[in-house]
Amino acid sequence: MRVVLELPVVQRVVVGVIVVNSVTIGMETSHFLMERVGGVLHLVDRVALGVFVVELVARVYGYGREFSKDPWNWFDVVIVGVALVPASGPTSVLRALRILRALRLVSAVPSMRRVVSALLAAVPGMASIIGLMVLMIYIAAVIATKLFGAIVPERFDELPQSLFTLFQIMTGDDWGNVAQEVMAHRPWAWVFFIVYILASTFVALNLFIAVVVNAMNDTEPSPAESRAQDDLVAMRQELAAVNAKLDQILMRDHAPEDQRRGR
């Protein structure tokens, strides 16, 4: 059973079913399509769910105890389990969560699994940078509230408003208009906004991206590292073959001497 599940054809079929089911669930949001082909869409959804359940049961049977050791298998169990909950009564809200089946692509496609694993490996580094960004925004918000709260109260009247405005500026959303509103009363305010944008956007966010990229590089070896590893394996095999030939030669050389001594 395990051999069958690991066949490339079977894996491609599962990926294809996930993609088709994700598309049909998205099509169900259209009233136009539901009026015309709603029955077909529901049928495809039930067939896809049946395929997922059969595939999951087959994996439990084929892998046995090893199934529970892989966290990706538990991820698939949760996704399929949510889909099996009746979408009526108090649990009707779970019907909207059927699209979570599309996340099974993460566990079905190895390259996506590597990306998610890299993101999880980068969490400790990202936590430090997130803490730095929160501290930076908080300090800037306190300063902005003190300096600009009286002149632009709709944006900097109180600390929560200042935090939201500065987060908006950090994402680059409409920061020019915000700066212009403040500079109409405080011409020197451009210094504050330029320093804040440089510190938050160009430094902190780039550090955030650098941590993620570094984690991905550590998780997945580069092509040069892969070639070097393959060369080492080939060299070990060649050395083992040479040692075996030397042993055979030595055994042939010692064999006549042993025979003469025996005589």
Automatic annotation (TrEMBL):
Q: Name one GO molecular function term.
A: voltage-gated sodium channel activity
Q: What is its main location?
A: membrane
Q: How does it sit in the membrane?
A: Multi-pass membrane protein
Q: Provide the protein's localization.
A: Membrane
Q: Which residues form the Ion transport domain?
A: 10-218
InterPro entries in the record, alphabetically?
A: Ion_trans_dom (IPR005821), VGCC_Ca_Na (IPR043203), Volt_channel_dom_sf (IPR027359)
Residues passing through the membrane, by range: 12-34, 74-97, 118-144, 188-213
Q: Domain of life, per the record?
A: Bacteria
The name this protein carries in UniProt is Voltage-gated sodium channel
Q: Which UniProt keywords apply?
A: Ion channel, Ion transport, Membrane, Transmembrane, Transmembrane helix, Transport
Q: Does Transmembrane helix appear among the keywords? A: yes
Recorded hits in Pfam families, A to Z, give: Ion_trans (PF00520)
Q: Which GO terms describe its cellular component?
A: voltage-gated sodium channel complex
